[in-house]
Amino acid sequence: MLWVVAVGFFMQTLDSTIVNTALPSMARSLGESPLRMQSVIIAYSLTMAVIIPASGWLADRFGTRTIFQTAIGLFVAGSLACAYSSSLTMLVAARVLQGVGGAMLLPVGRLAVLRTFPRDQYLQALSFVAIPGMVGPLIGPTLGGWLTQTFSWHWIFLINVPVGALGGLATLRYMPNSRLHGVAPFDISGYLFLAIAMLTLSFSLDGLAELGFQHATVLMLLIASMASLTAYVLHATRRRRPLFALRLFRIHTFSVGLLGNLFARIGNGAMPFLIPLTLQVSLGYSPFEAGMMMLPITAAGMASKRLATGLIQRHGYRKVLVTNTFMVGLAMASFSLISPTQPLALVLVQLAVFGALNSIQFTAMNTVTLKDLGTAGASGGNSMLSMVQMLSMSLAVTSAGALLATFQGSFSRHGAISALPAFHATFICVGLITSASAWIFLQLSPDVARPAGKGVQDATEM
């Protein structure tokens, strides 16, 4: 069963990164501008953010095997629809279907593991499942570039079909259909409030770039987002069992960590979208070459995992997060120096430094968010963190796309014929956003307890 869950996790994480290097090829095939393809990524991550809060209840109500099989089926159907899309609108709709399946693969698979294995085997089982999830982002950009260049971009989706078919058959045979009896009613009102808040916020930002909304429409969407979020808070104070209990925000480390995750990741999440696009659109890299250039980021990130643990144990969360967040922002802004004349070795160093700092950031942010939840709040807090992470990925690409469109229009009016100045300005902006979010972590108490040991890494593997 562990292999079944691991394969599902691999498919979900692979498709979060495999598309990035194929965007320019997709744009040419569909007759679109490569600078206006962010909706392909946003549709997937935003759908996952919306569906994740409901995945646990669905598994409790209908059984882990039933929902996991459904998730695989939707993911494969969405992959096929992506491969045979003939327009950007069809592709975005297919990515939504794929995201619905992807959103349930990890949470339901992890729940199946927790209900199948005894407590003393949890860590070993979950670590096994986590490994393919780490491999997916590692090979995603390179594999996506190779498939696009060797065959066509359609194959980055078609490879999911045989893997998903085998996973579906294995699920039927090896995964027990564990379910809970007497499940409490789902908080549908709270869920709708949160879903509307996330969707309207994302559409308001994307409306400035790809969708071409008028400013009045964008303003109304922002107001609707704030109103929906406020409605959820009022709803949660009255409901006995809300979707996410507001008492979680009484835990100082959780509140600071969750807000830090949301805003710091807006910069972090934009980079996997911006870097391959810059290399292909402005520097003439092939899809495979652009994918290969992403390897230093992941390799340096994996190598720095243990460094993160040591730094946090020595200096504490507050000092590490404030300093590292600021440095991550500087590393992002440094990509504004990228140009056709810049030595390749220097670009590789930039990528590796960013990857190492980014890995330390994720380890510290995730651990400080979850460390004080306790057993009672672990499930709700972890689900909320997963939702915020996917929402921030969507907002990151949305914001980067809006900045690119704004700067491209501005530089075009001033006679610039290259997209490179727009990319440079966008890198500076996302770097400033990330560095500014260091102020959030400054709110942590200096005496926040340091981790005892390997728990830092264990808490952030999934």
From TrEMBL:
Presence of keyword Transmembrane helix: yes
The organism of origin for this protein: Cupriavidus basilensis
Annotated ranges, domain Major facilitator superfamily (MFS) profile: 1-449
Gene that this sequence comes from: mdtD
Record key words, sorted: Cell membrane, Membrane, Transmembrane, Transmembrane helix, Transport
Record-linked Pfam families: MFS_1
Cellular localisation: Cell membrane
Transmembrane segments: 40-59, 66-86, 92-113, 125-147, 153-172, 184-205, 211-234, 254-275, 320-338, 344-364, 385-407, 419-442
Record's bilayer topology term: Multi-pass membrane protein
UniProt name for this protein: Multidrug transporter subunit MdtD
Superkingdom classification of source: Bacteria
